[in-house]
Design brief:
heterodimer; A: mainly alpha; Helicase, Ruva Protein, domain 3; 66% helix; elongated; B: alpha+beta; 4 domains; seven-stranded antiparallel sheet; 11 strands; globular
Chain lengths: 151, 685
Amino acid sequence: MRRWLAWLLLGVVVGAALVVGARSDPAPPSNAERIADLAAELRCPTCRGQSVLDSNAPAAAAIRTEIARRVDEGQSDDEIVAYLDSRYGESLRLTPPSTGLASLVWVLPVAGVVVACAGVALAFRRWRADPPPEVSDDDRQRVRRALGQER
Amino acid sequence: MNAALGSAGVTLGFAASVLGVLALAVGLRRRRTASARGTALVEAEGLLRLGRSFAWLVLAGAVVATVAMEIALVTHDFSLAYVANNGSRSTPLLYTVASLWSALEGSIILWALVLSGFLVALVRRFADRAADPLVAWATLTMLVVAAFFFALMLGPADPFTTVAGPVPVDGPGPNPLLQNHPLMAVHPPMLYLGYVGFTVPFAFAVAALVTGRVGEGWLAATRRWTLLAWGFLTAGIVLGAWWSYEVLGWGGFWAWDPVENASFLPWLTGTAYLHSVMVQQRRGMLRVWNLSLLAATFCLTILGTFLTRSGVLDSVHSFTESPIGPWLLSFFGITVAVVLGLIGWRGDRLRAPGSIDAPVSREGAFLANNVVFAAFAFVVLLGTVFPLLVEAVNDERIAVGTPYFNRMTMPLGMVLLFLMAVAPALPWRKASGELLRTRLQWPAWAGAAVVVAAVAAGARGLAPLVAFGLGGFAAAAAVRQLVLAVGASRRRGGSAVAGLVGRANGGMVVHLGVVLVAVAFAAASSYASSDELRLEPGRSGTVAGHTVTYLGMNPPADDGQKTTFAARVQVDGDQVYEPALNRFPNATQTIGTPSVRTGVREDVYLTLVAAPEQPGDPAVIGVIIQPLVVWLWIGGGVMALGTVLAAWPGERRRRPIQPASEPALRTPARDPDPPAEVPAPAGMA
């Protein structure tokens, strides 16, 4: 019982710390943070594999400037994303869409993990269902003899 | 001259590998018929010895090709197309030497060189077992792979083609990004040593399947080879991240770029193998799975080379334009088919003899580890190739980038941290709750303390806090194991260091390195703040509590290789840093050189985004503040150290003929029985 108390206490401490850490959000995001977050979600149109935030290519810099202008104008994130989609198309978004064929990229790994876990669980059931091997008196005697010799 | 020498080397390497394959194949065949008939094996074994001696010729061919290419690069022999495309007279010597791996053809030479180096090492290491069919088949497999890479150089990726028309006077040099930091000279060779190193265990896996000796012998024979390859791959990946951080100027170290993913995929499956192999060695189970993991690791190195070198990532429709694409893809397909065929053929021998008793046990933890690593690898692979699949099916272009990878891999990473914390405390077979409560208590409290301390220090956000807590838990679990091992070694009269070597203890050191990397990754990506400041000389701006003052520009400096425009930037009124822009003579775009104030707590990363037109005009300074970045590199170092410790021959912990026995103790008084009484089974020797 005292053992469990220690673990209970541990759970309470960690839970409380996490609640404090997760809930008390500091200040609302600054303009610079909003620009960075928006730019990190877009692929730089002229380079390979870099986001608009990370790239120094002129095209990426232009999009960053455009985002910054709209943030300073006071547009919301959704408005800016809608504008960027209309201007550049959704193919620039680094997060693949969750509809249509592209949604498979989200679904397949989850399905894979579920299937794998089910497979492992099934394997354990089968292993458990296997009865332990029959031990004959002969075997027992042999073991006893071997142990006796050793001692 | 260099072209002729190099081509001769390639031809020699190819011919020697083909002849070696033939000699070994004939020798193996003769050996089988001879032993079936009961006649003498001398002739067959002579052929096997002959076959393996071809390894030296293969190495000679690769060395000649490498030397020829390096001579051509260093002496600026622009009659070679490769030198004309990748060399220049203004490039410093270090980067000229390193341009061997700055483009496709040269990197295939490096691949062949490393592969033949491993081949000769294998032949030497197993010299006393030359007539053993297992070793012969492994050598043969290596030779087949070598033949393929030499064939690439004879066919679609010939590094020694000469330029058509007049010989140019100078070349463009390597991509400016590849001649901006000395790490470029170290990181690719490391990566290749890791990549190619996995060919050795793969070759033994194939050999085990072919000979039907799918027991545990080949696992023991390849343990250090696998560790070595894994250690190099780890070091190569970490150095690559460091290079990217120091050179690319975006303040990041990991972009989930296809090239990075290509190196990360074999690392994931290789890591899964290093864990699951212990289940097989201990319990004889998971044979098919281990073989599949090794095969997957090898195939993923080929697939990764295909993805990054064929141009397929630009568009599915462009990969046939590069002649090497179809070759690599075919080799990948053939390898997969051969391995699957072999596993199917040997299915009866691969059946596991035992069973795993309980999910909460060491075996169960390794199984869970493997599920998570497999899922991790699947996510990375799917995310990398998914745009191609969508384009091929729908002719629609989509991007799969950092947000996707981060979201999908974060939960997997958390589960891995949790397993790292719990698994070392789990006994084999079955764990009782009582045992776990005792063993995990202090590590769990350490994790809790980390969470509380992080919250008290102002860290916010659920995901990073959970990562820190699990990191603390896992680190404490590893430390606990190490303390126990050192104590046990002391009690036995050994040194403290003896408690740190060997697979289990070295592995715990690796775990500590992984925790450092994971915590640093979580902190740096969760709490980064960045801004671009447009500052006139003498003016200051503030980013995340740090004052950045632009003092002015240095006069442009020309070192013959490039012209450097450096700004003088003072951080927090203290030291002056000089982020710069470099103009290379043969490149249109300027390349930035970031300047970083590295600290134990956080890095201040400075870039010069735009230099002023006139002196006195404002400059645009990029400032990125990221916590704990330096711990990524330290963690990488700890992982490398742990790998060395794990490969270090420790004391023999168990009597070799009874793998399940208690650790053999040094003091003879406590050694219960003389080993001579137990006859060794015939197959184990």
